[in-house]
Amino acid sequence: MTVEANPPVKAAGFVLAGGRSTRMGQDKAILQLGGLTLVERCLGKLRTVCDEVAIAGGKPELERYGRVIPDEAPGCGPLGGIVAALEQSAHEWNLFLPVDAPFVPDKCLRELLQVAAVGDWAAVIARADGRLQPLCGVYSRTMLPALRRELAEGRWKVAPALELAGRVHVMDFANVKWFANLNTPAEFAEAAEHADALDA
């Protein structure tokens, strides 16, 4: 599918930062990588393709980086942040990026938005090396009622909730390293050592 140079749809962008960072031992969002915190890196990428950006979930201290939208259901995983963001969004299309995936390039985000604009889908999500990346994707607000119902009934897995909420298009990307999650101090240290190569 051919895509244009610029996103043809207006969208809101949200950094998903509501995790407890248990394995990291500290809040991942404020870890410094290449001179910026992870939340700053992700907000910067979203600003290149979105009309407005905010932080979905996360501690109140993150307000110094941008608007923070509290989780719809704290402790219920990223689905709570997604539902809260969709509840407050004024845009039909909403682009999500997890705070612990700082190497997703803005061109990937742009392509997700471009494809969302030309197809009859409720969501467009990334996949790399056969693995779905449901937290890196574009969601229509039409999905909100179904996602809210899944959250209320205690089914917190994002991918199954998406399947129930509407027609989902999957976009394949060749570079699996873009979607590497930094969950532990060892993963973060390795990423920091190779940040320039991973950003390329």
Automatic annotation (TrEMBL):
Q: Which reaction does it catalyse?
A: Mo-molybdopterin + GTP + H(+) = Mo-molybdopterin guanine dinucleotide + diphosphate
Q: Which CDD domains match?
A: MobA
Q: What class of enzyme is it?
A: transferase
Gene Ontology terms, cellular component aspect? cytoplasm
Read off the InterPro entries from this record: MobA-like_NTP_Trfase, Molybde_CF_guanTrfase, Nucleotide-diphossugar_trans
Cofactors (names): Mg(2+)
**Where, by residue number, does Mg(2+) bind?**
100
- Molecular function (GO) terms listed? GTP binding; metal ion binding; molybdenum cofactor guanylyltransferase activity
Q: Which UniProt keywords apply?
A: Cytoplasm, GTP-binding, Magnesium, Metal-binding, Molybdenum cofactor biosynthesis, Nucleotide-binding, Nucleotidyltransferase, Transferase
Keyword Cytoplasm attached? yes
Q: Could you tell me which residue ranges the MobA-like NTP transferase domain spans?
A: 13-154
The record's annotation in SUPFAM superfamilies points to: Nucleotide-diphospho-sugar transferases (SSF53448)
Q: Where does GTP bind?
A: 16-18, 28, 71, 100
According to its UniProt entry, what is the function of this protein? Transfers a GMP moiety from GTP to Mo-molybdopterin (Mo-MPT) cofactor (Moco or molybdenum cofactor) to form Mo-molybdopterin guanine dinucleotide (Mo-MGD) cofactor.
- Fill in the domain comment: The N-terminal domain determines nucleotide recognition and specific binding, while the C-terminal domain determines the specific binding to the target protein.
Similarity comment: family membership = Belongs to the MobA family.
Q: What is this protein called?
A: Probable molybdenum cofactor guanylyltransferase
Q: Which organism is it from?
A: Edaphobacter acidisoli
